[in-house]
Amino acid sequence: MKDYLIFLAQSHPGFRKAELESLANLHGIKADFSNHNEEHPFLMVSLQSDEEAYKLIDRAILSKGIYELWGHGNSFEELHESVKSNMAELRKPYLLNTFKFENLTFQGGKKSREEQIKMYEKFVYLDFKGKIRMKTPDQTFTILEQYSLGADLFPLDHPDHCWFGRQINLSARSRGAVEKYDIKKRPYFGTTSFDAELSLFTCNMAQVRPGELIYDPFVGTGSFLVTAAEFGGITIGSDIDFLTLKGKGPKRRLKDNFDYYEDPLLFTDVLCMDFTNNAFRKDLTFGSIVCDPPYGVREGVKVCGTTDSKIGRETVMIDGELAFLRRDYIQPKKTYSLDLLLDDLLQFAAERLDTGSRLCFWMPVANDVDIPTMIPQHEQLELIYELVQDFHKWSRRLLVYVKRDDAYRGKTIRSEHREGINNFRERYFNKFSKASRAQQ
Ligand SMILES: C[S@@+](CC[C@H](N)C(=O)[O-])C[C@H]1O[C@@H](n2cnc3c(N)ncnc32)[C@H](O)[C@@H]1O
């Protein structure tokens, strides 16, 4: 085993470890991330090989890069001692390679070019024989530093800790994936489009694999489909709202986003369909299901049907054809509860996911009253993560389930056990106050 250093992103620190664990599991890598600290963006891990390190970070969104660790210490003196004691074996394969040095800091001030060069020159004892090349060198050697802030909120003069390592790989994030999927840059987006960074992260949590069929049952403008395609998933979606699927005119439809990202072959299609009356054939299975079900705030939870005993039941003929059999027939719709919809989603996932595959979805929860949140559960699905993104009075949770084999019997928590507890829509529109009083 060798030591590596991961430089983590400074966003969503509470989700970073879960992403690394999911990526390690996806690639069959055994690694211990228990030293992860949400306060700091540096994490040391032991891995078998550079190849494992490369794969672990390659598609990460909440990590920036991974480095073969040559030394570290609480001061530059300690760092140099550490590098000198390790370097004999480590430097051999790279002696003749072209190389460059770089410096990355957490909370550190910006160094002038002269200061940087002075810092790099202190590593002269490595005695590399290759040429320095700033563009596309064979090896990049990185000095990483972590600083604390003083009472004036400026960084202290000396780092708390520093590391020296050889860059193994930079992540999808560092290669620009989050900017690439920025909602506003897409030909087609809308008010429900899901944040690019978290869509990509969700697809990593779902372990989207190249060539597998990935389904979003509440596809909207397709944020999860384009990000699943980034990781090679073959995507398919459905939504009850025909107008969302139709898009905003030529070159501003969901399919145009795939052309824009040059992934048209990874887009199967989208179907206008009520998820609760699912039309996929019974033996169609999916590699993962990823979604953001309707919260009932911007878009209501709707299913096909009517609560009015008359509407939709009268026989209407158009041009000699029964109206409901025509292609242009628009079904009446009735409102439905998010709780029931989530039961349906879990049941569907239990039937349609391959064993070991994942269902990932975001569930809104009101935080205004101090009662435990009841997370939906199904006996065939193991809930492995519940990651919370807090917005003060409400939060949304990413729930990650794995489909287990027939021998598995997990917990069941259906809507009747949760009734009236989450009730997100009502509490949102009451500004989270009326429901709180009712609970007291
Ligand atoms: C939160 S939005 C999803 C947004 C999507 N992730 C995006 O990036 O645009 C939920 C979607 O669920 C759809 N929806 C609501 N009820 C549905 C149902 N019964 N079956 C299928 N889709 C439904 C809504 O039309 C809406 O587009």
TrEMBL record:
Protein name in the entry: tRNA (guanine(10)-N(2))-methyltransferase
Domain tRNA (guanine(10)-N(2))-methyltransferase TRMT11 N-terminal as annotated: residue spans: 2-173
Domain of life, per lineage: Eukaryota
Domain Ribosomal RNA large subunit methyltransferase K/L-like methyltransferase per the UniProt entry, residue ranges: 185-230
Enzyme Commission number(s): 2.1.1.214
Localization in the cell: Cytoplasm
Gene Ontology CC terms, in alphabetical order: cytoplasm; tRNA (m2G10) methyltransferase complex
GO biological process, one term: tRNA methylation
Enzyme class: transferase
A GO molecular-function annotation: tRNA (guanine(10)-N2)-methyltransferase activity
Protein family per UniProt: Belongs to the class I-like SAM-binding methyltransferase superfamily. TRM11 methyltransferase family.
UniProt keyword list: Cytoplasm, Methyltransferase, RNA-binding, S-adenosyl-L-methionine, Transferase, tRNA processing, tRNA-binding
